[in-house]
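Re: folding output
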Amino acid sequence: MPSPTLRRPRLQKHITDAPRLRWSALAVAGLALGGLGAWIALRPPPLPVLGGVPAFSLTERSGQPLGAGDLAGHVWIADFVFTRCPDFCPALTARMAGLQKTLPRGSDPIRLVSFSVDPAHDTPDVLRDYAAHAGAGSGWVFLTGSREAIAAVLRDGFKVAWADDGPPSTPITHSDRFVLVDRRLRIRGYYHGTDPAEVKRLVRDAAALRDGGAS
């Protein structure tokens, strides 16, 4: 309903109309403040800061180097997979492909970053074929590097569950979490990548973070 409109009093009206006009002005102000309060109440609370992504330098599927600094200034979502995984990696990659279609686009799209935990096998060429099969666009990057560099990203950066207790030829045991990262390389959320409800929450949080509503 539109707010009541205050009209200029007619000269012939009795002077006692003035208090009513003042009360109407106060009522309009109250409605405006009430609307502001309702907007504040409905606005999502800021996402927590759960840590920071350290500097890293890895190799993208294109063969070009890509580091944390290249992702600064963007909101992005990370996951951890390997191309010969028989377990939940295909499901994670399918979820990421779904995010690629679902997340808001425009001049500042949310980036997707998949880290391979099987660097001995997942060369840039292998990752290029895997990305093509997944339908990955230019906003979805696939990274590999030395085993120690990947382990350091898991251990010191994302702090997700992992284990490196096998020979160098085997993948690093890894988490099924998606990780939401803000423009300042701060971790803002962890989400089960195989849980549809969690992935929906991730979409909402990532969009709000990009648009400044959850920062």
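--- second protein (sequence, then structure) ---
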Amino acid sequence: MMASGDWNGREVGEWRLPIALVVVSFFVLMAFETGYAVHEREALADQRRTQETTVQEAMKLRQQLETLAGKTAQLAADGDEGARAVIEQMKRQGVALNPPKE
């Protein structure tokens, strides 16, 4: 017959240390993972900040290029031979230039 306080043949006090170690290990792991995630988030934020200027410049350049392409397409539509040659060359390269919408 089992003595009171036995659980599967072990005293209840024998389980406290292993359970405490598992719980402490779990919390240490969660603290490490949280710290790592915070560090990674800060690193990504730094990367984004360093790229922001480049992205803004690229957007300005793209807008200028689209304006230039639209004006070239408008000139070609109005009959300018040089602009038509540019449009044809761009079509051969797979780039479609459309006149700006008004």
